[in-house]
Amino acid sequence: MFDGFDAILLARIQFAFTVSFHFIFPAFSIGLASYLMVLEALWLRTGRQVFLDLFHFWIKIFAVAFAMGVVSGIVMSYQFGTNWSVFSDKAGPVIGPLMAYEVLTAFFLEAGFLGVMLFGMKKVGRKLHFAATCMVAVGTFISAFWILSVNSWMHTPTGFVMGENGQFLPGESWWAIIFNPSFPYRLVHTVIAAYLTTSLVVGAVGAWHLLRGRNNEGTRVMFSMAMWMAAIVAPIQIFAGDMHGLNTLEHQPAKVMAMEGHFQSHPDGAPLILFGLPNEKEKRVDYEIAIPKLSSLILKHDPNAPLAGLDTVDDDKEPPVAVVFWSFRVMVGLGMLMLALGMLSLAARVARKLYDWKPLHRFALVMGPSGFVAVIAGWITTEVGRQPYTVYGHLLTRDSASPLAAPAVGASLVAFVVVYFAVFGFGTWYILKLMAKGVEAHEPEISEDAPIRTAGLMPGPAQPEVGD
After folding, report:
1. Which residues face 285 on adjacent strands?
2. DSSP-derived pairing of the beta strands 272-279 and 168-170
3. Radius of gyration, alpha carbons of the chain
4. Neighbouring C-beta atoms of residue 305, cutoff 10 Å
5. CA-to-CA distance for 391 and 151, rounded, in angstroms?
6. Interatomic CA distance for residues 418 and 365, integer angstroms
7. What is the pLDDT of residues 299-357, one digit of tens each?
8. Could you tell me the pTM of the whole model?
9. φ and ψ at residue 279, rounded to 5 degrees
10. Disulfide check for 271: which of 148, 177, 252, 290 has CB 3.0–4.6 Å away?
């Protein structure tokens, strides 16, 4: 069935498929864990029942998303040994310990406190339960820290020496490996993307219930908090993305050339190509719509600064331009829409129509999945833009794959597609079902003999509603 296919291409498709599924769930659970931490902190601080109601509503969704993220991630580690054994052999001395640190620090931390977080509110004290929630939130961040360190090292490898058998071996300092040049930028950009993705989902759920007339306190607080997050974080993310782009220009200029669609060098200032059809055969962008000199202004802060193009890169070292060009524009375009949503929510808040302006609610509902699309588009831009390398500048993708025949890789790819859509499709359906139920008020799940007053949980004077 797959005899006419390239085994390496099938292996790349398989890894892209599985990592895309996996990326969706951590991008949600990282932000949602922090959101749960904030909700519980607000409940403990104010004693308002609505924050506890929201905590119980979202923790069910978090549990399902977290489980699917763990399961989808297990498969990826197997692929390093099955489809990419040469890469594992050569880069294992560097990336192996980093991935082990992720398990020893983050995964054990999350797994150790997750049960307390999910089921311990009646069984442990409020402070210990809140500490467990904080540990789970911290664990998700630590997990992102180590995984992104590994990924960033593959883009900007430093701190290693080459062994006699072609292996990447740690040098004198692990700090140079962990904190490689692109890591701080990629960490900030990705974690902010996770928070923004979560806020858009929370906002979409709140908008859904507002549109259906469920204008209760839980829905209003949920929607208000999400819109605050979008309004504050979207501009920060745009700035962080710009800094990440400048770092990429310094260390991976060919990727930026592909992102910008610059097949030719521009000695007197490069235009910003908004849209067009990259023609990789003819080395040009057809039907381009461009703003003169704006790319040089953005990347070099000088409209007349020269920018090199792909004509300075060997053809066999060029990344696939069309894929990178369009995935980058999808990411940026959605980022601009997120910024617009945040600004519209501020306008509605000032006009005191945040819970009544139906066009804003419809916009927020449509934008619900946009964070997931944006993170996948950003991942495609990053990873496809690194090609033809797995370890940038040192190890080619074609030299990293296992010596497998195409039918073997193709058969496992088909199996993954069937199983993933079945299992994770059902999980996603169940999450959407939980979201559709809405927030319902109920009594806080604490023991009757707990010292409520000393914990600050006794209702006091009326508290201002979040968003007012």
Report:
1. 278
2. unpaired
3. 24
4. 17
5. 9
6. 29
7. 888 888 898 989 898 888 899 999 999 999 999 999 999 999 999 999 999 999 999 89
8. 0.87
9. -110, 90
10. 290
Query: Residue 170 pairs with which residues in a beta bridge?
Result: 160
Q: Which two tokens stand for residue 432?
A: 């959407």
Q: How far is 50 from 56, CA to CA, in rounded Å?
A: 10
DSSP 307: B
Rounded distance, CA 197 to CA 29, Å?
10
In whole angstroms, what is the distance from residue 27 CA to residue 380 CA? 15
Alpha helix (H) ranges present in 212-320?
Answer: 217-251, 253-260, 294-300
Q: Which two tokens stand for residue 306?
A: 């020269």
Q: How many helices (H) and strands (E) does the chain have?
A: 14, 6
Q: Are 285 and 261 in contact (CB under 8 A)?
A: yes
Tell me how long the chain is: 468
DSSP string, 122-178: TTS-HHHHHHHHHHHHHHHHHHHHHHHHHHHHHHS--SEEE-TTS-EEE-S-HHHHH
Structural contact between residues 452 and 458, judged by C-beta atoms closer than 8 angstroms? yes
Residue 390 burial class via C-beta count within 10 angstroms: exposed 0-12, middle 13-18, buried 19 and up? buried
At 2, is the secondary structure helix, strand, or coil? coil
| pLDDT > 70? residue 293 | yes
Beta bridge partners of 169: 161
pLDDT of residue 121: 79
H helices within 438-461, ranges in order? none
CA distances from 5 to 86, 320, 402, 414 (A): 20, 19, 15, 14
| Four-residue CA torsion sign, 16, 22, 25, 31 | negative
In the numeric block, which tokens belong to residue 175?
């700090």
Confidence grade of residue 416 (pLDDT, cut at 50, 70, 90): confident
Q: Are the beta carbons of 399 and 241 closer than 8 angstroms?
A: no
Question: Who contacts 99 (Cβ-Cβ below 8 Å, separation ≥6)?
Answer: 77, 146, 147, 150
Helix (H) or strand (E) holding 14: helix 7-46
Q: Identify the three-state secondary structure at position 445.
A: coil
Asked whether the bond before 184 is cis by omega within 30 degrees of 0, the reply is no
Note the pLDDT tens digit of each residue in 440-464: 766 344 333 333 333 333 333 333 3
Assigned token pair, 18: 């599985």
